[in-house]
Amino acid sequence: MPMSKRLGRxxxxxxxxxxxxxxxxxxxxxxxxAPHPGPRRYRGGMxxxxxxxxxxxxxxxxxxxxxARGDRWxxxxxxxxxxxxxxxxxxxxxxxxxxxxxxxxxxxxxxVAGADAVPFAAGMGPAESQVxxxxxxxxRAGLAWYGKxxxxxxxxxxxxxxxxxxxxxxxxxxxxxFELPDEAHRVVEALMxxxxxxAALREIVGDRGRYDRAMVALQRHLLVTSAGVREYRTGxxxxxxDLTCRLFDVGGGPDHSYATRRFLDxxxxxxxxxxxxxxxxxxxxxxxxxDALPRGRHPTA
Length: 301
What we know:
The protein has helices at about 5, 15-25, 60-75, 80-90, 110-115, 125-140, 160-165, 180-190, 200-205, 210-220, 245, 255-265, 270-280, 285-290, and strands at about 50, 95, 145-150, 155, 195, 225-230, 240-245, 270. The protein is mainly alpha-helical and about 300 residues long. Among the domains are: about 80-165; about 170-245, Winged helix-like DNA-binding domain superfamily/Winged helix DNA-binding domain (Arc Repressor Mutant, subunit A, Orthogonal Bundle); about 255-290. A hairpin with a 7-residue loop joins β6 (about 225-230) and β7. α8 (about 180-190) crosses α10 (about 210-220) and α13 (about 270-280) crosses α14 (about 285-290).
């Protein structure tokens, strides 16, 4: 469906517009009047702090940026299968699970339910159940990494982007190279024999707060991932955690150049701060990578 029809120019209310402004970086003008984004290519003259893909209109048009991101983040048809979700994630590289105000990133929810849908507005509906199920099925099948990473929120990474961001050797002992809380090392050691439920890992650590801090540290370095669920005869299924290196092909060394090009292709426009916050990089690293981007080439070529 064309983006102009998704917007419903005549009936669009102010609350929806403001939500899109915060989510996609929209400006204040009517989106229908903004120029449609042209071919994805790098454009010079944007200054040191901002890198942008070329557009057919003014370089600083907020509405054009919002339209470009909407066209980039929303699939032509809403996702209906886990394979379609995996293909979508391959195309955008990363996505948060559910949208949030001022978190400018694609979301799996919007790709499933549409840009206007509000998650959990009427409780756990079919779309919410679908997203909640896929967050477990995707990593279990090796189709996407899942954990708290992008903007420190529940998010998914495509296997290729994961490999480009992973800084370890792809071995179960990768955790030894990082300064982590003692509980984080204990979690990894417990996972050496196979995936364990979150309940079992919390019991091993012995304190929920310390367990949560351990998982934050491990996921920051992409060392562990959600790995599906374990069903029981009664009660809720238990979420499983496993070592990233056991489910995904990682350890070939980080590829900052690809990760940066992937980010810019998805975000259309980016600053070093945005890149740093998304990938958990130092701002200096993000700036260096953006400055090194070749001009006039497709970002993911």
